[in-house]
Amino acid sequence: LNDLVGVSGTPTYVYSQSILENNFHKLDKILKKKLGEKQKILIAFSVKSNSNIAIINRLHKLESGADVVSVGELKRSLTAGINGNKIVFSGVGKTAEEMLFALDAGVLQFNIESISELKQLSDISNSNNKIAPIAFRINPDIVAGGHEKIATGGSDTKFGIPYNEAVNAYEYAKSLPNISIVGIDIHIGSQITNIEPFSLAFQKIRELYNTLVS
Question: Which residues partner with 179 through β-bridges?
Fold first, then answer.
């Protein structure tokens, strides 16, 4: 570390490539084991957790995708080599310019936080002769997370579509031009070390899925 500081100065950030790769391979392996080799799987790295282009590029070489919350993160992911069809655009407050840039980049999907955001995306897509693939971020009313400020799945949170409004939201999305519904999104919090909240959340999302396809 002292030698690196002598070359680079401070501050210097040092990452373990082997740990990064091993963690990715572990997650990839268990998903394939649980879902089957024929099931298409995309692990999308959360760029807001570390936007270092070298990190994103290394994950790209492992065939990772990217989850971004701004046009800056989207551009960094593209620069690192990740194709638009492996990029998920999440986050609140997407601007019209960001939506159009993401449409032009051919992102895999937009994770939509509100009906107003959905309507704006439909208008922009329609005006530019684009089809926008979307998934609603559904709030399953499950509280979890290392701290109340990062617990985003409870009924009183400002994020996402309330679970009891999800069906109506999807029905509305079906009525809008240039919108393609491709999935369901959830994010219940950060620093969760117990599997139970995830299990409860996925049970509710499965019930929602069954209702939507019935």
Answer: 132
To which H or E segment does residue 132 belong?
Answer: strand 132-139
The series of mean pLDDT values per 10 residues for the chain, 214 residues long, is 91 93 97 93 96 96 97 98 98 96 98 97 98 96 60 58 95 98 92 88 95 94
> How far are the Cα atoms of 18, 51, 52, 92, 156 from residue 161, in angstroms, in the given order?
38, 28, 31, 12, 11
Residue found under tokens 């959360």:
46
CA distances to 55, 56, 134 from 79, in Å:
12, 9, 24
**Which residue, 209, 158, 151, 149, is CA-closest to 185?**
209
Name the 3-class secondary structure at 45: strand
The candidate with the shortest Cα–Cα distance to 42, out of 78, 58, 25, 66, is 66
Alpha carbon distance 147, 130 (integer Å): 40
Produce one character per residue of 2-17: b if its CB has 16 or more CB atoms within 10 Å, e if not.
eeeeeeeeeeeeeeee
Give 65's strand partners. Answer: 44
Give the Cα separation of 84 and 66 in Å (integer). 9
pLDDT at site 150: 43
The β-bridge relationship of strands 132-139 and 109-112 is parallel
